[in-house]
Amino acid sequence: MSALILTIIPVLLSTTVYNISSIIDQGIYKNLALAQGHDATLISESWGVFTGQYKVLINVPLAIASAMAASTVPSLTAAFNSGDKELVKNRLIWPIVLLWLSHSLAVLE
């Protein structure tokens, strides 16, 4: 059970942080652009380009990492049931590393 929880927690955390960062990004971007005196139409257009092109590119590693984490659960369960602790450890490391990397990319945007 703890192995499953350790596998699921990074998925939940990265998804939560990614969704919250999108809301925070929009608020900061629009408020700073308005404070600098930019036109609201220009701000909306540039925000649309950002979310329509750049955000899509950022979602690719997140989707791959999330899919890998979800696909690890059956093999993790089989390794756990066979009693192979080394295989369980190996099955946990890569999804966590990939989710951490994808989360880092999303935060660095």
Question: Can you tag this structure with a few keywords?
Answer:
109 residues, 0% strand
Name the assembly state: single chain
Indicate the low-confidence ranges by residue numbers. none
> What is the alpha-carbon Rg in Å?
19 Å
| Helix-strand topology string | HHH
Query: Biggest β-sheet, characterized?
Result: none
Give a short overview:
The chain contains 3 helices and no strands. With 109 residues, it is mostly helical.
Q: How would you characterize this protein structure?
A:
Helix content is 93%, strand content 0%. The protein has 109 residues and is mainly alpha-helical. The protein has one domain (2-108). α1 (2-35) runs antiparallel to α2 (40-82), α1 (2-35) packs parallel to α3 (85-108) and α2 runs antiparallel to α3 (85-108). The chain starts with a helix and ends with a helix.
Strand and helix layout:
Blueprint (H helix, E strand, L loop, with lengths): L1 H34 L4 H43 L2 H24 L1
Helix pairs in contact: 1-2, 1-3, 2-3
